[in-house]
Task: inverse folding
């Protein structure tokens, strides 16, 4: 019997392969047999990830957002300037989503449990932007804006991107839309000293089960 450490390592390896396949081709058209054939593994190995295809999909989608969040936050932490941290965060989100195909986003939109994972991460990302805006205003490197309003506005746009409304209206895919959102936010907030009386600290919210984007 494999050791627990080896089993965990094998599961992580499978998740990496699954998310790469799903990002490239989506997941709705694959059955367990198809996945086993494409990944050259047994059904038993796939079921070590989760006990059903639906749960395997959710695990892979969650794994994608979790690994993306870790890379994004590592890049943010490497910058000292709060304005640069905001720029890095928004640009890195767009870069991470660039790997996802239209088929992946369509399948996420059509499968409620995967869509919920995406929605949770979108909500977290909006809160993270709010935190970074407030930090930049306090440091005097961003214009003195109402951070909670910016966070709420960004959340609305991110939600529209996630639901496909932005693509329907503009033809932009998710990664392209996030890049334009980054340009809009950064351009509108650049420059000007902070007025501490205008700063409203972001309301703390629990993350729940969300994995940060």
Result:
């Amino acid at each position: 019997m494999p050791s627990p450490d080896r089993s965990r390592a094998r599961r992580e390896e499978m998740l990496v392969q699954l998310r790469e396949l799903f990002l490239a081709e989506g997941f709705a058209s694959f059955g367990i047999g198809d996945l086993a054939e494409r990944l050259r593994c047994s059904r038993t190995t796939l079921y070590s990830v989760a006990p059903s295809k639906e749960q395997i999909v959710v695990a892979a989608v969650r794994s994608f957002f979790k690994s993306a969040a870790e890379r994004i936050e590592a890049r943010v932490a490497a910058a000292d300037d709060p304005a640069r941290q905001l720029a890095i965060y928004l640009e890195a989100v767009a870069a991470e989503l660039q790997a996802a195909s239209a088929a992946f986003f369509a399948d996420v939109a059509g499968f409620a449990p995967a869509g919920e994972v995406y929605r949770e991460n979108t909500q977290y990302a909006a809160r993270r932007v709010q935190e970074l805006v407030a930090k930049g205003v306090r440091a005097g490197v961003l214009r003195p804006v109402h951070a909670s309003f910016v966070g709420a506005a960004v959340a609305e746009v991110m939600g529209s991107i996630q639901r496909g409304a932005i693509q329907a209206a503009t033809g932009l895919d998710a990664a392209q839309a996030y890049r334009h959102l980054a340009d809009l936010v950064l351009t509108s907030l650049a420059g000007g000293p902070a007025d501490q009386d205008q700063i409203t600290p972001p309301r703390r919210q629990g993350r729940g089960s969300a994995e940060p984007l």
Summary: The CA atoms of residues 40 and 162 lie 32 Å apart. The mean pLDDT is 86. The chain is about 70% helix and 0% strand.
